[in-house]
Each structure stands twice: as C-alpha cells, then as structure tokens.
Amino acid sequence: MKNLGLKIISIIALLAVVIFSLLMLKTISQYLTFEKTTGFLAFKQQVVGNPYWMAFFYIHIFSITLCLLAGLTQFSTQFLAENRKLHRIIGKMYVYNILIINAPACFVLGLFSNGGIIGITGFILQDILWAYFTIMAVFSIKKGNIIKHKNDMILSYSITTTAITFRIIKNLFYNKAQHDYELFYGLNVWAALFINLSIAYIILRKKRSPLSFKRSIRNEKINTDR
Prior knowledge:
With 226 residues, this protein is an all-alpha fold. Helices cover 80% and strands 0% of the residues. Helix 1 (2-29) packs antiparallel against helix 2 (51-72), helix 5 (116-142) packs antiparallel against helix 6 and helix 5 packs parallel to helix 8.
C-alpha cells in the first residue's frame, strides 16, 4: 500500500513536470519575436541593450525546457533497463546542456537578477549547486557508483526544476497590490531552492531505508547482468 502511494505521487510529480514544461514552452515561444519589450524583458530594460546579456538570456530560455524534459527520462528503472544506450545519450545531453550552456548563462543572468541582493545571491547559489551536483553525478558514474550517481542526479534535477517551483509560487501567491515585486522575487528564488532541495532530501532519505536500499542493490545487479 505504501509503495502504491509512492508510485501515485511519482506519477503525479511526473505529469506536473511535463505539463509545466509544456506551459513553459508556450511562454518561451513569445520570445521568438526577439522584441526587447516582450514578457520578462519588459522588467529588464536596464540591461536589454547589452548584447552579451541578451545572448545569454536567449540561450537559457531556448534550452532550459530541453533540460527539463531530458532529465525526466533518467529516473525510470524500467527505461534504464530497456534503453541503456538511449539513457546514456539523453544523460549526456542533460549534462552538456547544464555544464556547457545553462550554468554559464545562468551565472551571468544571476548577476543581474531581479530581487536585489537577495535574488542575486539566491540565483548564484542555485547555479553553483546545479553545476556541483551535475559534476558529482558524472564523477560517480565514471567510478561505477550507480547509487550515488542516481542520488546526485536527483539533487541536480531538483535544481533544474526550481524554475517550475518559482513560477508556481509566483502564480499562487504574488499580489501586485500587496507585495513589493523586488522583495517577493528575491524571497521566491530562495523559497523555490529550499522547497526543491527539501523534497530531494526526503526522497534520498526514503531511498536509504533498509528495504529500499536492498531493492536498489537488487535492481542494479539485474540491470548490470543484462
């Protein structure tokens, strides 16, 4: 019964990420006009004249959804067992997307973040943790430590999905008449990071339970033998 509940929660979480990724695609499509007053850019008029900032902005928004969707495939035991080569290819796409494209882009964007010093420090910390957990996931799999690799990937993906959590919080709680936009924005950055890492550590704690650990070892042995 407990396992059934966890599976239901996992399916709901999966559907939520897919749905919000598609919604993000819809939001991102508005930037295909490359107009400097579109959407979020309307609030960044002080930097839209900087070609480097604009380049990093477009690089980030046009690649982040691919990162979100690529990460989804990396946590299914069945998918891993049946599509090991595809798993590696998609995994490399995810890692390259973060380390070569999005982590550098987000670092630059973070330096000019909304939310003042609160928002800037929050985004920079997110970016550092994002790169760190992703690099650790790579090192772990190269050393053959599959369990640690999966754990690091969970932590990495928890940072990837802060973009979704950030927008959920903003849509649910932000009130223009009641909240200072800059303060709300900065606090929201930290809230999204805290919520996602908390969920990740809860998942990792459950995975470390004796029963889950034995099941994980058994599954890894089966996958290795195939």
